[in-house]
TrEMBL record:
Domain annotation Serine/threonine-protein kinase BSK1-like TPR repeats: ranges: 309-380
Chain positions of ANK repeats: 86-114, 119-151, 151-183, 215-247
Protein name: Serine/threonine-protein kinase BSK1-like TPR repeats domain-containing protein
Pfam families: Ank_2, TPR_BSK1_C
Keywords, sorted A to Z: ANK repeat, TPR repeat
Length: 428
């Protein structure tokens, strides 16, 4: 781990933190005694020294200084579950430092393996992210909740997103829910496709993961859109439906043909039901047909500059022509795929059109890109309201209000969500 930042602390306090981080037990004891000044309250003197909420035990654990940890836990009886300003515990520091023996020691001395450590994450999320299999096993042996849910999903979602197939196997072996849906449509399988991890995809399918997806958002369409040719066969063999169309009404084989990916079309052709509008149902026939159709590039609007496309989209939104606005924002996104504002604008259109799943997908992108943006929280909450997930809507609006306490629109939206939640519970 990085050296401790001790600005703002006195000389002796800095020395104590540095001694803990360096594992210099004798210097640590001498400094602790000096801070206590003979009052006989050594534990209180040590625990009072904090740097951004992190105490000496945090830094000792993060560096794997086991001797210092043993002294603090067994002789000073320091709180092993103390949190720093971000919510991280000594156990979290030890996991981030990758020190297996320190993790095991803390767990053996009452460290809570399920204590949230920021945005709802748990130590298991951290271990899955880093792919430290021995630490994962240690946490699970102490009863860590394998399906704990955070703002980024479960530990299995995290392993999938970070391409940690070793960690994924351990989590699956311990009963992790391979079909757990996070944020309406996102499963561990979708995360694995997003991260382009074939090994993770295979592990999930072997465990029994659902390959059908939700509506037009299917794993096969995600794979085709991302050009994941090597992923097709395992998805198809597991039962993925090649006849499900995307939001624009196109089949997976048509998406592949449009990109002139011949090998993809060859794989999809035998399993796709023939459609009457393509006369020559062959690899060449499908590619020729799809590429002869008018494309988005033929649209005069496509030749506009990105800023002009966005401007025209804003004009379409103001005159309540949401379908045209969506088309324009989507074109602008093709030019600037990382522009969060474009996604938020398109999300507003989906909300106006009552398209909850599509709105949520854009809102989720906004929150991932800009987690401290109140508007992204509002959009996520509004999408959840459309999907009648009132509890998650409340959570999102509350997050937004914390970021922007003076936002009247979010405050009203939160009240409405709470009312809907109460009515929903009463109806049950």
């Amino acid at each position: 781990m990085a050296p401790p930042q001790t600005s703002g602390l006195g000389a002796r306090q800095r020395r104590l933190i540095q001694a803990a981080a360096d594992g210099d037990l004798q210097l640590f004891k001498r400094t602790a005694s000096a801070l206590d000044a003979g009052k006989g309250r050594l534990r209180e003197a040590v625990e009072a020294v904090k740097n951004r909420g992190a105490g000496a035990l945090h830094f000792a654990a993060g560096r794997g200084r086991l001797a210092v940890c043993v002294y603090m836990v067994e002789e000073l009886h320091t709180d092993v579950n103390a949190s720093d300003d971000k919510g991280d515990t000594p156990l979290a520091y030890a996991i981030q430092g990758g020190t297996v023996d320190t993790v095991q020691y803390l767990l053996d001395h009452d460290a809570n393996p399920d204590k949230p450590i920021g945005k709802g994450s748990t130590p298991l999320h951290l271990a899955a992210e880093g792919g430290n299999c021995e630490i994962l096993k240690a946490l699970l042996s102490k009863g860590a909740n394998v399906d704990s849910l955070s703002d980024t999903g479960t530990p299995l979602h995290m392993a999938a997103y970070c391409k940690q197939d070793g960690a994924m196997k351990i989590l699956l072996d311990h009963g992790a829910d391979y079909n757990k849906v996070f944020n309406t449509v996102c499963t561990p399988l979708f995360m694995s496709l997003t991260s382009r991890s074939l090994e993770c995809v295979k592990l999930l399918i072997k465990a029994g993961a659902d390959v059908k997806g939700v509506g037009t958002v299917t794993p096969l369409i995600v794979a085709v859109n991302n050009g994941l040719t090597d992923f097709y066969n395992c998805l198809l063999e597991a039962g993925a439906n090649p006849d499900v169309r995307d939001d624009s009404g196109r089949l997976p084989i048509e998406l592949a043909a449009y990109e002139n990916r011949r090998k993809d079309v060859e794989i999809l052709l035998p399993v796709t039901s023939r459609v009457p509008y393509v006369r020559d149902w062959s690899v060449d026939g499908i590619i020729d047909f799809v590429r002869s159709m008018p494309s988005v590039e033929d649209d005069p609007m496509y030749k506009m500059k990105p800023d002009d496309i966005k401007f025209e989209g804003n004009k379409a939104y103001k005159r309540k022509d949401y379908l045209t606005a969506v088309k324009l924002y989507s074109m602008a996104i093709n030019h600037s795929p990382d522009d969060t504002t474009l996604y938020s604008n398109r999300c507003l259109c989906w909300l106006k059109m009552g398209e909850g799943v599509r709105a949520f997908t854009d809102a989720e992108f906004c929150r991932m890109q800009r987690p401290d943006w109140a508007k992204a929280c509002y959009l996520q909450g509004a999408a959840n309201m459309l999907l009648k997930d009132y509890e998650k809507a409340c959570d999102a609006f509350l997050d937004g209000l914390k970021l922007d306490p003076a936002n009247v629109e979010i405050e009203k939206a939160l009240r409405d969500a709470v009312d809907c939640l109460k009515t929903h519970h009463t109806a049950k």
